[in-house]
């Protein structure tokens, strides 16, 4: 039998190497393999909740957080069970503006124009959503005549005056609720319908309320619909004094209150949608209301503010303050002359500058003009109330009535317990 090569000798036939005694504690110790230690595999799924939420705070925006939270049940549960995290994330990363719903004369349904179509995170949301509003009821010719009254909490509130229909539609989820109109006697006694407003809660996104405001010569009246009771609560008339100078679609919802500037005057009406208290709020002396030149709005932290633009395009902003004795006042925030910037963007065409909305610390403005050839053109801007930087969002041929659509927290990311997700790990 042939001899075995040393490389495959049995272990017993190979003598252990002999090292000098002086090396016993050095090289020998280094050459001898250490006993293996027990190890525990660490994965991203095993991160503690606090560390996980701290990592999530570093995500760039809300769409990125949605994708991350839906990756597994543990991550989703961490986001759902922490209202404080959601508030902090919103403060660091305000929900993105996805686009503008435009109302154009001669078009039977509002048109959506995206404003961040090249943002990959936003583009995914836009592709999956129902921004053509195809979910609206369309029996017979009921698809005609839909008007937009509010966009809030991810929902668009539309009503159809031709058919007496009201609907709340979420373009992101394709969910649509066909709502009952206010009672006939409520509408029949009204000389001046002022509009609808949509109220919602960040911590209870599955439910909402709708406020309908009407007025006559010297009084206002409100009806409130609740998605939980599916019924309207009718409130009594309230005297506001003087001649009614409230105009349709000039109001703003801030918190749980609706603010209506009084045309030609230096005050506005405040209607608390919870208590139905109606009060008069004086405006700064410089802020005389003339149609759409003055709007109440909300600062980045949800406080009340006023944005007023003069005929020479001077935009002034005041924030509302209440001292320890309950005395209310308006504090000048910032002022900026927009004439040169707007004229440069609109190439010198003449037209008034309107305050469309003030939401989450951003003022939305529009300028409309008729060209010599008879074309109606409009420019839609956004202005950050902190930096006072003006950005052009849309330029096109429409009449200037626009409603910013801001991405809301998905209901799946709000709650105490994570839902069962098929395929989650």
UniProtKB/TrEMBL annotation:
Record-linked Pfam families: Beta-prop_AT5G49610-like
Residues in F-box protein AT5G49610-like beta-propeller domain copies: 150-366
SUPFAM superfamilies: F-box domain (SSF81383)
InterPro entries: AT5G49610-like_b-prop (IPR056594), F-box-like_dom_sf (IPR036047)
Gene3D superfamilies: 1.20.1280.50
Protein name per Swiss-Prot or TrEMBL: F-box protein AT5G49610-like beta-propeller domain-containing protein
Organism: Triticum turgidum subsp. durum (Durum wheat)
Source taxonomy: Eukaryota, Viridiplantae, Streptophyta, Embryophyta, Tracheophyta
């Amino acid at each position: 039998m042939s001899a075995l090569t040393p490389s495959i000798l049995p272990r017993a036939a190979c003598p252990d190497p002999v090292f000098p005694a002086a090396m016993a504690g050095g090289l020998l110790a280094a050459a001898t393999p250490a006993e293996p230690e027990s190890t525990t595999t660490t994965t991203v799924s095993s991160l503690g909740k606090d560390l996980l939420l701290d990592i999530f705070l570093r995500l760039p925006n809300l769409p990125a957080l949605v994708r991350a939270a839906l990756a597994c049940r543990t991550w989703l549960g961490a986001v759902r069970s922490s209202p404080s995290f959601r508030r902090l994330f919103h403060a660091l990363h305000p929900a993105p503006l996805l686009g503008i719903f435009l109302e154009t004369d001669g078009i039977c349904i509002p048109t959506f124009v995206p404003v961040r179509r090249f943002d990959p995170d936003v583009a995914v949301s836009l592709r999956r959503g129902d921004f053509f509003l195809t979910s609206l009821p369309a029996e017979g010719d009921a698809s005609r005549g839909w008007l937009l009254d509010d966009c809030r909490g991810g929902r668009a509130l539309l009503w159809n005056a031709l058919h007496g229909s009201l609907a709340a539609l979420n373009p992101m989820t394709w969910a649509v609720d066909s709502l009952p109109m206010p009672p006939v006697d409520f509408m029949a006694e009204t000389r001046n319908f002022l509009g609808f407003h949509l109220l919602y809660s960040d911590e209870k996104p599955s439910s909402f309320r709708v406020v309908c405001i009407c007025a006559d010569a010297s009084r206002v009246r409100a009806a409130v619909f609740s998605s939980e009771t599916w019924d309207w609560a009718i409130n009594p008339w309230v005297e506001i004094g003087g001649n009614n100078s409230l105009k349709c679609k000039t109001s703003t919802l801030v918190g749980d209150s609706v603010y209506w500037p009084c045309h030609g005057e230096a005050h506005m009406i405040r209607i608390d949608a919870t208590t139905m208290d109606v009060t008069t709020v004086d405006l700064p002396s410089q802020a005389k209301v003339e149609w759409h030149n003055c709007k109440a709005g909300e600062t980045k932290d949800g406080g009340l503010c006023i944005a007023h633009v003069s005929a020479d395009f001077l935009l002034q902003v005041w924030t509302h303050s209440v001292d320890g004795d309950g005395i209310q006042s308006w504090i000048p925030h910032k002022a900026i002359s927009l004439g040169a910037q707007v004229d440069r963007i609109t190439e010198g065409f003449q037209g008034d500058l309107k305050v469309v909305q003030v939401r989450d610390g951003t003022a939305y403005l529009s300028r409309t003009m008729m060209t010599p050839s008879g074309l109606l053109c409009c420019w839609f801007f956004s202005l950050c109330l902190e930096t006072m930087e003006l950005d052009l969002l849309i330029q096109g041929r429409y009449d200037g009535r626009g409603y910013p659509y801001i991405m809301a927290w998905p209901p799946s990311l709000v709650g105490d317990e994570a839902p069962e997700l098929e395929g989650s790990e």
